[in-house]
Each structure stands twice: as C-alpha cells, then as structure tokens.
Amino acid sequence: MSDKQAVLEAVGQMPDTLTLDQIRAELELLAALREGLADSQAGRVVPHKEIKRQYAAWLTP
Q1: For 23-39, what is each residue's pLDDT tens digit?
Q2: Which domain holds residue 15?
Q3: Of 5, 27, 51, 60, which is most buried with the most CB atoms under 10 A?
C-alpha cells in the first residue's frame, strides 16, 4: 500500500471530531510505525538480549 493510500485509509477511519493537531499526531504515529516495520523487514534491528545488556550498562555507575 502506498503512503498516500495508507494516509487516506487512516484519515477515513478517524472520527469527524478530531482536530488538525490530533490528525497530525495520528499520521505521525502511522509514519513511525511504517518506518519501524520497514526497518524490521530490512533487518535493521537490535536483538532484545543486546538491548538488555546496553540498558544494564547505562544503569551501572
């Protein structure tokens, strides 16, 4: 699905009462989710075990 099609579908499902700021926020979330999915599919991810190791290192003084 193209970006334009995804936006049109998302906006079409939104309630008519949303403000422009709320619509913008929803579209930003959609863009971030699509970007994350593309990264995942391309293998641009960090394994959970590595994230846990990095997190532990950040907490260690």
Answers
A1: 999 999 999 999 999 99
A2: 3-59
A3: 27
DSSP result, 8-53: HHHHHHS-TT--HHHHHHHHHHHHHHHHHHHHHHTT----HHHHHH
Q: How many folded domains does the chain comprise?
A: 1
pTM confidence score: 0.73
Rounded-to-integer distance, Cα 49 and Cα 43, Å: 16
4: left (phi over 0), alpha (psi -120 to 50) or beta: alpha
Please tell me the predicted confidence (pLDDT) of residue 11: 97
Q: How far apart are CA 9 and CA 3, in angstroms?
A: 10
Contact in structure between 12 and 27 (CB atoms under 8 Å): no
Question: Running DSSP on this structure, what letter comes out for residue 60?
Answer: -
